[in-house]
Amino acid sequence: MRSYNIVIMSETTYAIETRGLRKVYGDHVAVDGLDMHVPRGGVHGFLGPNGAGKTTTIRLLLGLTEPTAGTMDILGRAVPEALPEAIAHVGAIVESPKFFGGFSARLNLELCADAVGLPHSAVDRVLEETGLTARANDKFKTFSLGMKQRMAVAGALLKDPEILIFDEPTNGLDPGGIVEIREAIRDLGEAGRTVLVSSHILSEIEQMCDTVTIVAKGRVLAEGKVTDFTGSVMHILDIGMRDLPSGQEVLRQAGLTVHRGGDHLVVEGYEEPEQVVYYLAQQGLYPNHVVARRPDLESIFLDLTDGIGQVGEMAINTPGVASGDQARRSAAQAKAANAGASAKRGPGAPPRPARGASADTPPSTTAQRSAGASPRGER
Amino acid sequence: MRLLMTEMRRLSNRQAIHFIVLILMILVVGLCAALWVSINPPSDADLQTQEQAFAAAQSDWDANGMEMMEACVNEEAQLQAIDPTIDKNCEEIQPPVRDDYVWAAPSWDDLLTGHGLGGVGFLSGFAPWLAGAMAILMAALFVGDEFSSGSLSAWLTIEPRRTRVYVTKLVVCGIGAAVLILLADFMTTIGTWLILKINGQPTGVPAGYWTDVYIDQLVGGLFIVVLGAIAGAALTFIVRNSMAIIVAVVGYIVIVEMIVARIIPSLQQVLLSDNTLAYVAGSSDYTTQSCATAETGLYLCSEVVHTVSRTWATSELGILAVVAIIAGWIFFLRGEVK
Q: Which strands sit side by side in the sheet containing A77-79, from one edge to the other?
């Protein structure tokens, strides 16, 4: 891992900060009073479903479009006014990698280097860092999507910037490419850079990021450390067994929310698979498989936004950075108020809200995990 | 300057620009090939046919020429009794000239004075107009591809000062177009001289041609080309699509220049082709019909010659370019770049 020269422009707390940022296209509000705080150093996730306003926010930060209202700072400099100064310390990929297809990788990068007065040795450096040296003289249009993405990373690294902004960097990549890019982003964060990475995939954020801002419909729902969000992740358990009706009845009597899901039972809102197995075994019922999975992002966002506009408002109205705990507590309160229900707990088990009755639902992953695995995201 | 050099390098590496260079080279070769053919005599049979046609015209003149002349003069006199301003141009009825019927090898002097603006370079004759259109297309391709590929938004993450980016791209388009057209002009001129020399034709030029005519036309043509490229780039910043500009240019030529201008001849005063020609050549003439019912009750028409002056042309072309540049700048400055 090479070391980087980080230029601190000012002693502000945040590398990037937006206050009341708003962008309206005709009747459509793309960004609606967004308050985002990206701490200096590390990887900050910008999480939200498609259409949440992530790309628009990034485009606003980079001066590619003008805000309707609100203010933004990059390294303590107000943008877009001071963007020409701030941009020297920012490398960015917005949406897909954009280079001239007919130019070689080297020529594309050399043009970027020439524009900012960097020596061509900087091009060799980033080609080396992104593993593109062997293909440096090949035309960009001949690259695979993964290589194009690496090329975009190379372009973003060219200025050796303090801040890197990646918009959906793994879109369209194969699994190998996704892992590669995630590791690269993690490495950049660990090297002391500030990386803002937008994604609609929660697992990505969990695996890469130290902090996260969650948005939907152009508004911040919650913001804080990833560990705060993942700390109370609740599982959905898929349990396979021969006698499904009996198993369902046992678990229901234990106070769990359970229903049939095809050839297996689905237990919602429970973090301890071994406890569920214990309930069944006590009655002589033995699962032939138990898979703990976490709710996908879509359902998380449906939970956060379904009938609980207060959650978003609370998060937005919270001064400063709303921590994950704060956001979760408020989300839970709001959801509980709406749902007006709480789950019954099994004997001996601590009170625990069932997932269906609580908005206390942190971001989750679409990846399946085996029973007994840590609920925390793999890092 | 750093940004300018970078953009120049980008322009010189663009495939679309290479394609335009190829088209220019084909045009240069085509012009030279046409000259080569024209200075070589046709076959004996063709020459004999041409001689026969001239002889027939000569016989017809001998038999009827004076009679035609007298008839014209008489008719003109009758009409002038009604309207003294009527001129039937009877003096244009002349005996046939042999060179109009029978092939004769052109000399360098013929080429300089015999057609179009009296020049042999690429910018002579119809070429300033064509060169201007090509400059617009070149600029449209250069700028339009940056919008369609999205590379302009990536570029703005490196250099966010849009006015600087805008000015640089316009200047680069102007310089690039000027260099290409100059190259084509010099190649055509040298090619013409060489072809005449190889075929044993006289290559001497009239005194003062290079200093008085050629340079004047070259500078005028270059102005048109640079203006076209800058305006083309500015317009592309508005519509953000090179194909839209190409369609607009072709559409303008076909609809306005070729159809509407024939229906409304007075429109030629503002046509880009006439103004381009007027700027390069110093002036450009066009005619309209002036018809009215005389006191005698006869409905009479006469041709009126109008002149597009260089001053008019400079003003019109300049205003159009400035409007395009300002509009493009405002659109680029205020608009969202995807």
A: A28-39, A14-25, A69-74, A77-79
Identify the bridge partners of residue A212 per DSSP, sorted by sequence position: A45, A224
- Give tens-digit pLDDT for B321-335: 999 999 999 999 988
Scanning the structure block, which residue is given the tokens 């100064």?
A85
Q: Under an 8 A CB cutoff, do B2 and A65 touch?
A: no
Residues of chain A with pLDDT under 70: 1-12, 229-234, 271, 294-379
- Give me A160's structure tokens: 């050796």
- Asked if residue A300 and residue A268 are part of one domain, the reply reads yes
Whether A4 is in a domain gets the answer no
Q: What is the ipTM of this complex?
A: 0.74
Last residue of a domain, one of A217, A248, A279: A217
> Three-state DSSP class for A350?
coil
- In chain A, the number of structural domains is 2
Confidence at B168, pLDDT banded by 50, 70, 90: very high
B156 touches chain A (CB under 8 A): yes
* Per-residue pLDDT, B42: 83
C-alpha B286: how far from chain center:
15
Domain end: A217, A243, A272, which one? A217
A→B contacts (Cβ < 8 Å), by residue, are 59, 62-66, 80, 83-84, 87, 90-92, 94-96, 98-103, 107, 111-112, 114-117, 155, 159
pLDDT exceeds cutoff 70 at B124? no
What is the pTM assigned to this prediction?
A: 0.72
Q: Report how far apart, in Å, the C-alpha atoms of B156 and of each of A68, A105, B274, B333 are.
A: 20, 19, 39, 12
Domain range for A292 is 231-372
Instruction: Supply the pLDDT for residue B109.
Output: 67
Of A64, A91, A107, the CB nearest to B153: A64
- Answer for the pair B283, B308: CB distance below 8 angstroms, yes or no: yes
Domain identity same for A174 and A238:
no
In chain A, the residue whose alpha carbon lies closest to the alpha carbon of B17 is A102
